[in-house]
Amino acid sequence: MDLSNENVIHIRRGEIEYLQFRKLNQYPEISHAYILKPLDLRSHNSNDVVQNYKVAFDSLDLKIETLLRPHQKHTDNVVCIHEKKNEDKPDIFMDYLENIDGAITDKSGITLATTNADCILLLIYDPVKKVIANVHSGWRGTFAKICEVAVKKMIAEYDSKPEDIVVCICPSIRKCHFEVDMDVKEECEKIFSYTNKLDEIIRVGEVKEGKQKYFIDTVMINKIVLQDLGVKEENIIDSGICSVCCHEKIHSRRADGIDYGLGSAIIFGNWDGSFFQIQ
To answer: For residue 252, which phi and psi values (nearest 5 degrees)?
Structure first.
């Protein structure tokens, strides 16, 4: 299965497979990837996680010491990273990254990582101010508008302008498979009624075991929120890939069950040219 399309390229290097966004590849000062199966970045053992990341980083010509990965908890918490705490090893499973679902930095030599198994991951870049961000937006984060939190922080902390910002939407569960019950549907209606697009965001599903089901387009919600902030429509680049439909290559909790693995999105800034880059 080749997942390449007009917005992403499916790359194989040895046993490692990943996607890159054609738009982000236009900027030689950054590196990025969305890591596919068979690599699994899910483990409570930090050594296992780091070793798996190292396999990917070696393939991508990146240094594992540059890795910084928050401990995601479906919040709307986004932090600005001014430095890594560890110089000679990754910042992962660290207290200062607890309950964090997004990170932003303008520092060269830091690889921001997030993980998913259906949730939306957003790779964000301001090529004018040289600022990168990596955001995990599950349905709870989407309803909390974490993408808005991230962009507003880029504006406030780094003087970014929304019209300069590029946002890339990694593979995630899509409206075709994001089935929810009445409570989530009603919460969605309450929060996003102002868009006047609920008929597009929500689709009525079947009745299962006496419960009416609904399908929600969380990708569309993120696009609306971003455009409301002033991010240009042409700068919102969607992979267009459903993690459930393509679970042969992409980790999916809904498709794979309790033994699901995790994919990872990474983005790396190399402003001074002293670090390795993805080739």
So the answer is: -145, 120
Q: Taking Cα atoms as reference points, which of 254, 266, 275 lies closest to residue 18?
A: 266
Q: Is 109 left (phi over 0), alpha (psi -120 to 50) or beta?
A: left
Report the alpha-carbon distance of residue 60 to residue 64 in Å, rounded.
10
Question: How buried is 150 (Cβ within 10 angstroms: 0-12 exposed, 13-18 middle, 19+ buried)?
Answer: buried
- Please write the tens of the pLDDT for every residue from 125-158: 999 999 999 999 999 999 999 999 999 999 999 9
- Flag whether pLDDT at 275 surpasses 80: no
CATH architecture under which domain 8-174+219-269 falls: 4-Layer Sandwich (3.60)
- Identify whether the C-beta of residue 116 lies closer than 8 Å to the C-beta of residue 99: no
Q: Which of 65, 61, 109, 58 is nearest to 91 (CA)?
A: 65
For residue 211 the two structure tokens come to: 């419960």
Residues 87-125: pLDDT tens digits? Answer: 999 999 999 999 999 999 999 999 999 999 999 999 999
- Listed in sequence order, the residues at least 6 apart from 220 whose beta carbon sits closer than 8 Å to its beta carbon are 175, 197, 200, 201
Residue ranges of domains in the chain: 8-174+219-269, 179-216
pTM over cut 0.70:
yes
